[in-house]
Design goal:
Length: about 300
């Protein structure tokens, strides 16, 4: 049975947010230390669950009890009087519980593409689970990049290895994401590589290849547009360095994101270092240049 957490909290006078992640009702997490003031904790309506962007999952009855200052059993009994059968339940069921990654060993063409971009194919597979898409089917001629959240595979994206001319001629988009309805979580509901970025500072990039170049201290929003769930995820870190591509439009969006993060109490800054290395974007740096940038910025 689903629970109408929104109605329950409104009845109890608890401040909530319902615009962070579809199907979730967000509150200040009662488990976080220091105290959460950014509504990082979320209760899911369709199937009762609790998860916090900062400290992870907890039993929903215990979380509810802490929010309402009740014993977990009392909180569970109260929740039963707020059944939920709304549209969010149907949406939640449209998501799969588990996804199976279709990655294959790299073909020679895929290995050559990565090597020409100064990436080590074996390292990418070992450290990030990156694999190939093969030569047939939906994911053919792509580098497949799995997306994890909380240690679980939730989705993936595929980057074309074809030239720009071939992409246009064959209708082969540069990036192809697993659709939300086939994912455990939508790809724009999470930050790529967030599980690996364990320090108190993080670099926010545009695309996954930027992250693969900059290393484990980097995450990406898969584009310059950032969603509310992704913004909420960024509040995990004390400091965020936004490192988008150097063109003016991307830099303008980077500055806007930094301002929004600062308004949430996050130490935020914009870094435009590509020009110093005559690079089109962070992914075009050499491995040693990327290491140098991360060291200068103090991101591990």
């Amino acid at each position: 049975m689903g629970i109408d957490f929104e109605s329950l909290f409104r009845r109890q006078g608890i401040q909530i947010r319902t615009d962070v992640n579809r199907g979730w009702v967000n509150v200040d997490c009662p488990f976080c230390t220091p105290r959460d003031t950014h509504a990082n904790g979320g209760f899911h309506n369709g199937h009762p669950a609790y998860s916090c962007w900062r400290c992870g999952t907890h039993p929903w009855r215990e979380a509810l009890g802490r929010v309402l200052s009740l014993d977990p059993r009392q909180a569970g009994r109260l929740a039963q009087s707020f059944p939920f059968t709304g549209v969010q339940t149907a949406r939640a069921r449209s998501r799969v519980q588990q996804v199976e990654f279709p990655g294959l060993p790299f073909t020679e063409a895929e290995r050559r593409y990565l090597l020409e971009r100064k990436f080590d194919p074996d390292l990418l597979t070992r450290d990030y689970g990156v694999m190939g898409g093969g030569t047939q089917g939906r994911w053919s001629y792509r580098i497949l990049i799995p997306v994890f959240h909380g240690g679980s595979l939730v989705s993936w994206t595929g980057r074309s290895i074809l030239s720009k001319e071939a992409q246009k001629a064959y209708g082969h988009p540069r990036y192809l994401n697993l659709p939300d309805g086939q994912s455990a979580m939508g790809i724009k509901e999470v930050l790529y590589n967030a599980d690996n970025a364990s320090g108190d500072s993080v670099m926010l990039c545009e695309g996954p290849f930027d992250v693969l170049r900059m290393g484990r201290g980097a995450v990406c929003s898969l584009g310059t547009g950032i969603t509310d769930p992704q913004m909420l995820c960024l509040t995990r870190w004390r400091r965020v360095v936004v490192a988008f591509d150097p063109e003016p439009a991307a830099q303008a969006k980077a500055r806007k994101i930094a301002v929004n993060l600062a308004s949430l109490g996050i130490e935020a800054e914009v870094a435009d270092f590509c020009g110093d290395y005559h690079a089109e974007d962070p992914a075009c740096l050499t491995p040693s240049q990327a290491d140098e940038v991360m060291a200068i910025l103090g991101i591990r």
